[in-house]
Each structure stands twice: as structure tokens, then as C-alpha cells.
Amino acid sequence: MNTHIEFARTQMVNQQVRTWDVLDPAILAVLGTVPREQFVPPRYRALAFADTCIPLPGGQTMLPPKLEGRLLQALSPAPAERMLEVGTGSGFMTACLVALGGTVTSLEIIAELASTAEKKLAALGFRGAEVHNRDVFDFVPDSRFDLIAVTGSLPVYDRRFADWLAPGGRLFVVTGSAPQMEARLVRRLGENEWSTEFLLETVVPPLKNAPEHQAFTF
Questions:
Q1: How large is the C-alpha radius of gyration of the chain?
Q2: By CB atoms within 10 Å of each CB, which of 28, 104, 120, 180 scores lowest?
Q3: Who's near 122: CB < 8 A, 6+ residues apart?
């Protein structure tokens, strides 16, 4: 065991994640055990536990640890739940969802990221995920999900994600445009009833091909 890496991981959890009100023991345990450094591109490995976004191929980024923690805590994944991740990215969030007991369908529009994440997840033993090189805006699910994690932002809220939830399901999504974006948790209460909880302000790069605000014209 590399004591320097383990010390840095512990510091990440205690000084970044906890201080953002992530207190769920299961979430803290996952962030303290899933090897985040293995999912970071080699040239940025020194930033694996830093409080920052980490560049990924295709102009994408890896979310900072504290936001990953808030996302996971908000969704509160449970064993045997069916999960959709929109934006596989590095595969780290995928691994966390699998570690919490879910079966994960993960969509990644950039082929290089999808391939790298799929290989990394397999090599590290995270067997509960299927990674697909797909654009979510062309995706039609064959059944509903218990939770949906959207790891890129939406300039305009898109109702289709909430419609994909099973009753009791949860959706984490960031909406708006920089510098003002809001993370929200949407719950499906029944067949035709949803609730929305605004969680925090943040800034997250938009999903590729996400619809933009339409400019007003006369």
C-alpha cells in the first residue's frame, strides 16, 4: 500500500467531501476506497485528490471530489437498484455506483472515454456496469431507472430524464449556464407526480448536444 496515496485520499474525504456536508457513512466509505487515482489520466495523476476539475479527453472534465460526494449522497444509491449515468467520463463515478450495489448503464458520447472507462472498470473488478458509446439525446431506454446521475449540465432542464424514473426514483441534474447553475434532485413520487429540491449552486460543463436557450426574436 502506498501510504502517501492513502493519506491523500483520507485528506480528500475529510477536508473536502465532509466539509461539503457529505456525512453519509456509505458514501464516505466508497469515496475512501474506490481508487480515484486509477481513473485520472496519467498526466494529471498528481491532481487525483485535489479540489479541482481534472481535464479528460474530448474537452471533458472529471468532477471535483466534493461535488461527486454531494451527487452520491443526494441520490442515496441502494443495492439492486437500476441506475443510469449520463456521461461516463473517467469511469470513477460509475465505479462508485457499482460499489454501492447498483447495476449501472452508463452513456458516454466520446468513444475514447467510453473505451478507456470500460477497460479500467473491468481491470479493477467493477463488474456491475455496462458502458455504451451513445449520445443520451438519441437514447430511448427499454425500462425505467431507480436513479439517474447526469454528470454534465443542461442549459435548459430536460423533462425526459425525470420521465425515465421509476416511481420512487431520483434524478441528480445541474441546470443553467455559467456562472449561475443549480444542482437539483428530482424525485418521482408517483406516475404523474414529481418533486424538486434545489441542492446547491455550482458550475459544470454542459453535456454535448444539450439543447441551448433559444434566443428571443421578433
A1: 17
A2: 180
A3: none
